[in-house]
Design brief:
Blueprint: E1 2-5, E2 8-12, E3 20-26, E4 30-35, E5 39-43, E6 49-54, E7 60-65, E8 71-75, E9 79-84, E10 87-93, E11 98-103, E12 109-113, E13 118-121, H1 131-148, E14 150-151, E15 154-155, E16 175-180, E17 183-190, E18 195-201, E19 214-215, E20 218-219, E21 222-226, E22 235-239, H2 245-256, H3 263-274, H4 329-345, H5 356-370, H6 382-394, H7 401-412, H8 414-426, H9 429-439, H10 445-458, H11 465-470, H12 472-483, H13 488-507, H14 511-526, H15 532-548, H16 552-557, H17 560-568, H18 573-586
Antiparallel strand pairs: 1-2, 3-4, 4-5, 5-6, 7-8, 8-9, 9-10, 11-12, 12-13, 14-15, 16-17, 17-18, 19-20, 21-22
Helix pairs in contact: 2-3, 4-5, 4-7, 7-10, 9-10, 9-12, 10-13, 12-13, 12-14, 13-14, 13-15, 14-15, 15-18, 17-18
Length: 587
């Protein structure tokens, strides 16, 4: 997703893993998006993902919000879902794919279904349909669900009725499954008594009960994602095992407007991904447009085109920013109050302690941060941020870490980040002063950890990106100097800082910055004592910079190939895989 003003792209919204199908404004909060990945997201206008709503099992076609704060979504999974604060509070089943859902001003919901009908759903008893109409709808819904139900891999509606038991069996023990109401029931032929003995209700096996994928309102055995490459969007390829694989390939290529010379690649792709190993390839095909024959493995290809000639990587490039959002809120507050009491009882530091109103305000701040499910709607005041900055500026370095932790979490709060940005915009020197204060020797591990994680979290809001770019060199240098003697958690946080910087500097095409990050990441990657997670993030930063940045040749000159080879030989799977990615890039 991109936000535009005129011809200028203001923000890129990164998070969905598939096509974004629908958008809607949510007043005072941001933008809602519905995606083929089955999720709904709420975004700040600044580009930050505030909330993800997960519950649909297929494509989400549309999303809409109401002034009450409720959100409604429509999906290919034949349901409309109503959401409150990111939680699904109701799911309304439909007899078909739901193409669209919208709120009316009074809070009622109108839906458009693939059965050709528009329906209005209400909570007002005066508007509810009469019992006969409700009964008719329930019957239609039941009939539709029965038509989709599968028993032992077969559609329930395709099973014969009880009259099939009037036909004698042909051998003792022969089984037959018939439809009884909404169930499939198995019978066995008793040759001695010449009757069908009831065995029992058929229960789906592990695979039979799996929900079949749906595309454009139709169920298939498979729906594949096909990457054509060359910046083309991912295409959806539906397939049923009962279909002729060549006919499927031909129809799909024609529907997608792709060359029929791709035919054999598509056929082999389908066969490979459906486990059909004993399939005889058709070598008699002639492209009606070019006259060329089918590609046969082992033969030279004639006029064949690769679906994607671009190499694929498992772990690079990194997209989006990482953050540290886990916290022990009660422990943080307890430690701050403990330190405050120490300041209060010491005559020399008594003036630095919090007053009772300030203590109450601090409690309210932590309470707001603790309620993470309402980050999109809760508010801070300017006085809240002023109090935090005052404590960060005046409290002794030895007592800073729990206050920095509150700052770290405030950065992730939409309104808190906005207020903090205003203060930084007017005077960002206090933030750099805080970093120096927290990292000045002998820096405590707690100060190092909380401060670097606070910096990492700044990347989540694009408002802070200019600050991070402006002070990039000194921020990286100060934490790099503390890295060697730091504990595992600090090392991981520093590696995360480098990874976030790599993403930002690639976006800004900053070669000097990329070079600095590359150098620091290479040091971590070469360190045999560093933990797996830190090394992994450093390697991803290196690979991302080589792939999307301007420093590939510099990395090669610094012998990144040997680092890649060493990583590839690692016993840790993800280290080995990203090592293979970098090795492929180095060729």
């Amino acid at each position: 997703m991109k936000l535009w003003k005129g011809k200028s792209c203001l923000h890129t919204f990164v998070g969905h893993t598939d096509t974004v199908r629908g958008l809607a404004f949510m007043p005072d909060l941001g933008i809602l998006s519905a995606s083929h990945d089955g999720s709904i997201r709420l975004w700040a206008i600044s580009g930050e993902s505030l909330m993800e709503m997960v519950g649909h099992t297929s494509i989400v076609y549309s999303v809409h919000s109401h002034s009450s704060g409720l959100v409604v979504s429509a999906s290919e999974d034949c349901s409309t879902k109503i959401w409150k604060d990111g939680i699904c509070v109701q799911s309304i089943e439909h007899p078909g794919c739901v193409w669209d859902a919208k709120f009316l001003e009074n809070g009622d919901i109108v839906t458009a279904c693939s059965d050709g009908l528009i329906r209005v759903w209400t909570t007002h008893q005066d508007y509810v349909a009469d019992p006969q109409e409700l009964e008719s709808y329930a019957a239609k819904l039941s009939q539709y669900k029965s038509s989709r139900k599968r028993v032992g891999g077969l559609k329930l509606e395709e099973l014969p009725g009880l009259d099939a038991l009037q036909i004698p069996g042909t051998a003792d023990g022969q089984t037959k499954v018939v439809r009884e109401g909404d169930n499939g029931v198995a019978y066995a032929w008793n040759a001695r008594q010449q009757i069908w003995d009831k065995i029992g209700e058929v229960v789906d096996g592990p695979d039979d009960g799996m929900k079949r994928p749906v595309l454009n309102g139709v169920e298939y055995d498979y729906v594949f994602d096909v990457d054509i490459g060359d910046s083309e969007p991912v295409r959806k390829l539906p397939y049923n095992r009962s279909d002729n694989v060549y006919a499927t390939a031909d129809k799909w290529l024609l529907d997608e407007g792709l060359p029929l010379s791709y035919r054999q690649q598509i056929v082999e792709f389908i066969l490979q991904n459906t486990g059909q190993r004993d399939f005889t390839l058709d070598t008699s095909f002639r492209d009606p447009y070019t006259g060329s024959g089918a590609y046969v493995p082992g033969e030279a290809s004639k006029n064949s085109a690769s679906i994607s000639s671009k190499p694929t990587y498992k772990h690079i490039p990194k997209k989006g920013m990482l953050a540290f959002d886990v916290a022990q809120f009660d422990g943080i507050l307890k430690k701050i109050l403990e330190f405050n009491n120490a300041l209060l009882t010491d005559q020399e530091t008594k003036t630095l302690s919090l007053t009772e109103p300030e203590t109450s305000r601090l409690n309210a701040i932590v309470k707001t941060l603790k309620d993470t499910s309402h980050y999109h709607s809760t508010k801070f005041t300017d006085a809240d941020i002023t109090l935090l900055i005052k404590m960060l500026n005046t409290w002794p370095a030895s007592m800073l870490f729990p206050v920095i932790d509150v700052l770290r979490l405030t950065i992730l709060h939409m309104n808190g980040a906005s207020l903090l940005y205003r203060h930084l915009k007017n005077d960002n020197e206090w933030f750099m002063h805080l970093i120096k204060k927290a990292t000045s020797p002998p820096a405590s591990p707690a100060n190092l950890l909380t401060s670097v994680r606070a910096v990492v979290n700044l990347f989540k809001d694009s408002s802070f990106h200019n600050l991070l770019l402006e002070h990039r060199s000194e921020i990286i240098d100060v934490y790099a100097s503390c890295y060697s003697g730091a504990n595992k958690n600090v090392q991981l946080s520093f590696a995360t800082l480098l990874l976030n910087y790599a993403v930002l500097l690639i976006e800004n095409k900053d070669e000097d910055g990329q070079t600095q990050v590359l150098s620091a990441a290479l040091e971590i990657a070469e360190d045999e004592k560093v933990d797996v997670d830190s090394k992994y993030r450093a390697l991803v930063a290196i690979g991302s910079l080589m792939l999307g940045g301007l420093v590939k040749q510099i990395a090669l000159d610094l012998d990144v190939a040997s680092i890649a080879a060493s990583a590839k030989a690692s016993k840790d799977t993800k280290i080995a895989e990203v090592g293979a990615d970098i090795e492929l890039l180095s060729k």
